[in-house]
Amino acid sequence: MTSADLHQANPTSAKPDAIDEISEKEFVEAWKAIVGEPPAVMLESRADMVKVLVESVPIAKPDPAAALDLSHRPEPEMPGPDS
Fold first, then answer.
1. Cβ distance 10 to 41 under 8 Å?
2. What is the DSSP letter of 66?
3. What is residue 10's predicted lDDT score, i.e. its pLDDT?
4. SS3 48
5. What's the rounded Cα separation, in Å, for the pair 61 and 59?
6. Residues 50 and 31 sit within 8 Å (Cβ to Cβ)
7. Quick one: how far is CA 39 from the chain centroid?
8. CB-based contacts of 2, cutoff 8 Å, min separation 6
9. pLDDT tens-digit readout, 23-76
């Protein structure tokens, strides 16, 4: 998915400006939970703020080699003689 695809995605379950209806305090707390700090500025539209945030985060590219690397998994425990 490219950033252009993200712009074209339109969720049908919620209206685009629903985030503008929550209180500023709730929005700032949610922002802090995601970003780790309060927003530097508050735009008139909180939906626009989220849009800017999403656009500023690079799209993660999966690493197939890392997905196949099972060395970080612990060995399964084998049942002992008392089992």
1. no
2. H
3. 45
4. helix
5. 6
6. no
7. 16
8. 59
9. 999 999 999 999 999 998 888 888 889 999 899 888 888 877 766 766 666 667
Q: Taking the chain, what is the end-to-end CA distance rounded to the nearest angstrom?
A: 49
Residue type, 79: P
| Residue corresponding to tokens 């049908």 | 12
Which spans in 1-83 are helix H? 3-8, 24-35, 46-56, 64-68
Spatial CB neighbours of 49, under 8 Å, sequence gap ≥ 6:
31, 39, 42, 43
Q: SS3 of 21, please?
A: helix
Residue 1 in contact with residue 59, Cβ under 8 Å?
Answer: yes
Count the neighbouring beta carbons within 10 Å of the beta carbon of residue 27.
19
Give the position of tokens 């008392």.
82
